[in-house]
Amino acid sequence: MESKLIVLLVIILGVIAIAQLVRVYELVSKLRDKKEHEITYRDNQLNAKLMLAFMFIQSGGLIYLMLKYGWTGRGIAASVEGIETDWLLNLNFVIVLFIFFITNALLFFFSYKYVKKPGVKAFYYPHNNKLEIIWTVVPAVVLAVIIVLGLNLWGDLTAESPKNARVIELYAKQFDWTARYAGENNKLGKFDYKLTLGTNELGLVTKETIDSALVDMIEGPTGINSIKDRLNNEKLVFNDSVISAMNVTLSRKERLARLLTQMKKHHNAKNDIDVWDDIIQKDTLYLCVDEPLEIKLRSRDIIHSAYFPHFRAQINCVPGIQTRMKFTPNITTKEMRKKMNNNKFNFILMCNKICGGAHYKMKMMVVVLNKKEFSKWWKNKQKDTFKNKYFGSSGA
Amino acid sequence: MASISEEIKNHGKHDDHHDDHHHEEHFVSKYIFSQDHKMIGKQFLITAVFMGVIAMLLSILFRLQLAWPGESFETLSFFLGEKWAPEGVLSEDMYLGLVTIHGTIMVFFLLTGGLSGTFSNLLIPLQLGARDMASGFLNMLSYWFFFLSSVLMVVSMFVHTGPAMAGWTIYPPLSALPQAISGSGLGMTLWLFSMAIFIAGSLLGSLNYIVTVFNLRTVGMKMTRMPLTIWAFFVTAILGVLSFPVLLSAALLLIMDRMAGTSFYLSDIIVQGEMLTNHGGSVLLFEHLFWFLGHPEVYIVLLPALGLSSEIIATNSRKPIFGYRAMIASILAIGFLSFIVWGHHMFVTGMNPFLGSVFVFTTLLIAIPSAIKVFNYLTTLWRGSIIFTPAMLFAIALVSTFITGGVTGIILADSALDIAIHDTYFVVAHFHIVMGMSAVFGMFAGVYHWFPKMYGKMLNTRLGYVHFWLTLIGAYGVFFPMHFVGIAGAPRRYYNYSVYEEFDTNSLDMMMDLNVIITGFAIMAALAQLIFLFNFFYSIYRGPKAPQNPWNSTTLEWTTPVEHIHGNWPGDLPTVHRWPYDYSKPGSDVDFIPQNVPLAEGEEEH
Ligand code: HEM
Ligand SMILES: [Cu+2]
Ligand SMILES: [Cu+2]
């Protein structure tokens, strides 16, 4: 409390002090017959020199930052696509920095050079078509180059994956990531959000999961029957708002139950195998070096964004639709640690779309293994297929 | 419309006879429910300054957290209380709340309402030679809508579930589901209503500006003799009229999703264990609608600033603006193109990649008219006779930030590269420089230049210099380093960067170094604004009296008397004989010829 008072006092005294200074300044101006709108020779010169100084401060500051913090921040690109991206990024940076230095320098230099001098009149120069055409055409040509190169790369980055690409799904929710590797046949099984349950977190579609979702919806602890029971139980007394909330929930669940019943009717169990052999993986995403990846993404709740800074890859995860990206990691974690000169370095998957309070903690570690290590890991994982997990028969 | 303009003209004539000093107006109708464009302009300015101070304070609060995460600050608990800053440490949710309200206020309230509201109102009638806006009443309404929306936005910060927290872009489902974040409850509702009212006010204002420009130009004021300020305000108003209604629809659909159970944006969602039945809605629909306003919005913020600086740079270089017609063409081209580039905000949303390519193309096109403008500014300075008024300094700084922020836009517009830096601090640096700083500098330039017209007093020049240099250095000190934080990969809207501890401590060290530097400069820049505030309010009351035409300018506003009168000119309206940039014209012995001076014998128009 006291410190606040002191701060307040200092502020008030400060304002009074400035006001007094300004008064003095005004009196002096009056004595010298200086008018506020007439900028004196001295003031003009001072600002001109400061403009020149700022030219150096600005470009010097940028150069200092580039030398000190330059491109090192996130390290070299660790994917085939990332290398191409970095190449084009650097090229564009060179172009852009060139424009930046020239035009800013001209701006501040002109400001310095052409400050008002006694006896020198400004040069009346309203337009010059030739000049204007030049500086329309030159940027247009430069931009054309940038566009062509950019779209070329964009085409590559968004093209179809090669046939042999490994298919992985990334599933986002507040505030973590779950990966699902396509099993033996490299095909991801189908999903439907209505099937999401504790035992089936990703809402995968099989005959069994539909059944249990339906059972849970009707008979589960918060299912339709239990709500109805409570509503009809004369011993329990609720106030009106609770009752209406319960009714809303009830009708929502009844609607979902109807949809599930339909799903059950139309379900074709032939494709269930695609689901059963999928492998669900949390916390750490293991990838194989030089293996092209086709990544499918979706979200349980709100928009998230899967951002792999080192692979230069990013795409949003959007509830209701599936998005995709592709890349091919080409440096293993071990190699990267050497290159980054940091034996604790890791690849990472971060969430890069605001998604709630703990957005900043939503991440998944990524480890790129060499071929041998990866196949070992993969073989070991085969006991953890969705089927084994679901029926609780994994030998673990 | 004709009848209204007739009425104003007649009204003006009628006034001429009996009052140089206007008959005593009641306090309420003069200062509060005023229909006089000059007073309304000042109302916009004061309200916007107030909102701007709040938004700046918010940015300092969350910058403290970014530079010294987890440390306890009395400032934080002082402003936010125990609930949102327990023991002086900002809470995660409130961090997002502060960022959201900061962005919203800065973009909409300071730089849309404030900038174009203030100067369109002040200058359109004065520079066109009109007695007032086409409709003084609608104009007054437009201010009061703005005021009401400002109040609602401020109130939304004090509700117990906190203000909106979904970012100024309020993407659903986060903004639609209170279960997802506490700010999406009452705070978001207030945000949406505030913005709906804001949009209504902005539409009234814009329609008024457009009609006024079409109908109330004085004799001789052809469209091609209008100052570039007016061209900028005019195109801005058109952009507003065409794009704000789209934001309103986006907001209305969101309100329906929140309150009426519709599924415009929602599909297949489970939030906090609750399975929703919404199906078939599209988040991308919202993003398209939002950015259909969102991008033109950038130019709604920027064009008025560019218009003001064109005027100020010409006046204080004592030279005509170079390439007047090219400048107009650029403004029109930018205005048009700004409607077909919105998709560059959506390269990584899952939008069809082919559509992405189209937006790359259109976006990079917009760089051409922008480049033309920059070159024309440079040539205007070339061989000028520059007078460094504080306004001139800010106008030059605007050109600098417009370049600096513009060039990084070229990189972000390239979809392939955007993948790597989208939503990182690189973007934050880019848009703050190109839109935030440029528009703020333009606004300051405008205030310093037209303060004598607004208040009949002069601002203190020396304080203006100190304010300028501290602000310029502060701006670059804050936003240059931010690029490097972004290139290092740091995502925006992160409460802290502790996740880096788990994968790259070197990168974290560098980022924390920079974050401390940034916050230091931010605090310095914020303190510098106190100098401005002091100068502003002190000078309103005690500043020296302004002469009629302090900067030796050519435009019509400086032919009106220093004391404001209703109807602007005591006698007949001035007649215009020339373009507004006859500075240092050969064959004339003064270095400026006002627009209302007839061509001398044998003199040619430019
Ligand atoms: C004192 C000067 C300022 C400082 C230090 C500052 C700093 C920041 C920072 C650190 C963020 C958070 C970025 C993130 O986490 O995504 C931010 C967001 C933002 N700022 Fe500023 N800012 C300042 C002035 C301005 C101005 C003048 C504008 C006007 C355009 C502005 C507009 C925004 C917007 C639109 C956002 C995005 C909000 C969001 O993510 O929803 N800021 N600012
Ligand atoms: Cu997330
Ligand atoms: Cu845009």
> Which percent band covers the strand fraction of chain B?
under 5%
Q: If you consult CATH, what is the topology of chain B? A: Cytochrome C Oxidase, Chain A
Strand order of the largest sheet of chain B: 1-2
- CATH homology-level superfamily of chain B: Cytochrome c oxidase-like, subunit I domain
Distance between the termini of chain A: 61 Å
- Mean pLDDT across the residues of chain A is 89
Q: Which sheet architecture does the biggest sheet of chain B show? A: 2 strands, antiparallel
Bound molecules: protoporphyrin IX containing FE, copper (II) ion
Q: List the secondary-structure elements of chain B in sequence, H or E.
A: HHHHHHHHEEHHHHHHHH
Descriptive overview:
- The complex is a heterodimer of chains A (396) and B (606).
- With 396 residues, chain A is of the alpha+beta class.
- Chain A contains eleven helices and ten strands.
- In chain A, the strands form two sheets. Chain A has a five-stranded mixed sheet.
- In chain A, helix 2 runs antiparallel to helix 3, helix 5 (207-219) packs antiparallel against helix 7 and helix 6 runs antiparallel to helix 7.
- The mean pLDDT of chain A is 89.
- Chain B is an all-alpha fold and 606 residues long.
- Chain B has a single domain, classed as Cytochrome C Oxidase, Chain A (Up-down Bundle).
- Chain B is 64% helix and 1% strand.
- Chain B contains 16 helices and two strands.
- Chain B has a two-stranded antiparallel ribbon with strand order 1-2.
- In chain B, helix 3 packs antiparallel against helix 16 (505-542).
- The radius of gyration of chain B is 24 Å and the shape is globular.
- Chains A and B meet through helix 1, helix 2, helix 3, helix 4 and helix 7 of A and helix 5, strand 1, helix 9, helix 10 and helix 11 of B.
- The complex binds protoporphyrin IX containing FE and copper (II) ion (CU) (2 copies).
- Protoporphyrin IX containing FE is lined by residues 56, 59, 63, 99-100, 102-103, 106-107, 111, 167-168, 428, 432, 435-436, 440, 478, 492-493, 522, 525-526 of chain B.
